[in-house]
Amino acid sequence: MIDSRNTGSVPTSPVAHWDVVLPDETATGRLAMDLAALLRPGDLVTLGGDLGAGKTTLARAVIRELAGDPNLEVPSPTFTLLQAYDLPRHRVVHADLYRLGDSSELDELGWSEQTDGAVTLVEWAERAEGAVLRPDRMEVHITLPTEGAEKMRRVRLLGYGRMAGALYRMKAIRALIDQVGFGPAQRRFLQGDASARSYERLIGAKRNAVLMNSPRRPDGPPVHNGKPYSAIAHLAEDVKPFVAMARALRARGFSAPAIYGGDLDAGLLVIEDLGHEGVLDGTPPAPVPERYELAVDVLAALHAQDLPSTVAVTTGLDHHIPTYDLDALLIEVELLLDWYLPHSGGRLSPDARRSFRQLWTAALAPSLAQKPVWVLRDYHSPNLMWLPQRAGLARVGLLDFQDAVMGPPAYDVVSLAQDARVDVPEALELALLSRYAKARRTADPTFDTKGFAASYAVMGAQRATKILGIFTRLNQRDRKPVYLKHLPRIWNYLERCLSFPELGGLASWYKDHVTAPGASRLPPGVRPAVFPVAKPAAAAPIATPAPASTPPNESGRS
Q1: Fewer CB within 10 Å, N side or C side of the chain?
Q2: Which PANTHER family match (predicted)?
């Protein structure tokens, strides 16, 4: 069930509370799961209440959840006062200050150094006379009821400052999980993507599901004409586009996840779990050709349809799919100028920036004139699952499409065939392009293969340019250096696309102003030999296929 009512925004009050009754140990375990899922580096949780009420039991359960190990040895810190754990996701500090003489002894424990950036769980925090408290914290008070079952506990959770909003979200997540029938499920963290979204697998007795936690994206600072980047680039601000696109794709026979339930206002969804198996295999991971081939068949089948620009979220609520317009495409390529160039030591004059926009405006015009399709926008290996138990195109599971736009068909084909996170052999890339073109031409003999080839080169260069900026930004702004390892691959894709004859002007601009990842900037006036000057006789990325009765050969050419 989708709850489309306005459930209210995250409270701005400095304090929020939630009273919970725990009838048994199973309920205590669920509370520990919920707390563990909430906690982030730097968070402080104090545990207080009656002697023997179970403060250490709850802390131990939270630590085991954070470790993903129900058998982890978690000794009580009664005598050591402080115990630290270096876990895969977080560093955790568990303290019991009952034996603390006074707050001055915290320095002897190295309190500040030990807890800096850690998830900190503190029993008997009152013994430190406020010295360990922070404005942003969660307090957990456990009491023994005067009457009732022996194992029953009453818990009051108090969120202060930033943790007030976190507590509100924790309560909303538990309510949704219970509502859709996954109350007893085990919650297991799933590695997320480069966005602010997070995911958990809900492991149930009969089936699993995935919890998508996608709080509303706040607007950033204005960057052009008073609008933030997210508005210009048409990035989804909430989960409504995901729900609408999932339902629209499923209605056409494609394997997007079913929506089991959600709170649209809170940005929470429980969706179908499409499993563990992707379209890569081996060590290091490499594309499985037959899976990539079916993935490009999905695109060809989708693009052959008449696709509306408005789709339903739920009864009485529609989503208008934005147009992948010139402003969006230009603001994306300018990420190269704003992030990658400074990262590589480059500087740009106003005239050079103006020339960059003019060259891209001209290059993008033919693609923007094509009949638009649904561009899912992140159609690559991390977001494609393999479902061997299904038949035909339904064997390809689709995960990420909330930023879908109406735009050039070549964009998603580029996303797949020039995968940003894994090497796609050039022979496989060419085979995929020929396979796509043949399928489109079979469905529509008027399909413009040459126009598609030109658009593929342009959209490939656009996407590679954007990703160089995005991955650099993830490193510098978001402290995610792991993405830098992909820059050489993206650079290689960019070189290949800019060798297309019609992109000679852009190729020259890049040659004059952009250096390869890891290369040093040359002195002013010295041009790095980066991109080959496109020759008139250069081959297009794909060849015009022969009639449908003649299959392309292994090189991807008919």
Answers
A1: N
A2: TRNA THREONYLCARBAMOYLADENOSINE BIOSYNTHESIS PROTEIN TSAE
User: Looking up tokens 């991390």, which residue turns up?
Assistant: 382
Closest CA to 416 of 298, 541, 295: 295
DSSP codes of every residue in 288-339: -HHHHHHHHHHHHHHHTS---SEEEEETTEEEEPPB--HHHHHHHHHHIIII
Q: Using the predicted structure, report yes or no on whether residue 537 has a pLDDT greater than 90.
A: no
What is the helix, strand, coil percentage profile of the chain, to 5? Answer: 40, 20, 40
Beta strands in 104-253 (DSSP E): 119-123, 137-143, 153-160, 186-190, 198-203, 208-213, 222-224, 227-228
Spatial CB neighbours of 434, under 8 Å, sequence gap ≥ 6 = 542, 543, 545, 552, 556, 557, 558
Written as six digits, the tokens of 469 are: 């900026």
In whole angstroms, give the CA distance from residue 324 to residue 345.
Answer: 31
For residue 273, the one-letter residue type is D
Please write the tens of the pLDDT for every residue from 470-529.
999 999 998 889 999 999 999 999 999 999 999 999 999 999 999 999 764 433 433 333
Selection from 235-244, 341-350, 528-537 with the highest mean pLDDT: 235-244
Specify whether the CB–CB gap between 66 and 90 falls below 8 A: yes
Q: Is residue 210 within 8 Å of residue 273, measured between CB atoms?
A: yes
Look at strands 82-86 and 91-96 and give their pairing.
antiparallel
What is the distance of C-alpha 444 from the center of its chain? 35
101-107-109 Cα angle (round to 5): 80
The structure tokens listed for 368 are: 């923007």
Residue of 138, 137, 43 whose CA lies nearest to 92: 43
Give CA–CA dist 517/220, Å, rounded: 28
pLDDT digits (tens, 9 = 90+) for 400-430: 999 999 999 999 999 999 999 999 999 999 9
For residue 270 the two structure tokens come to 């429980």
Q: What is the pLDDT of residue 4?
A: 44
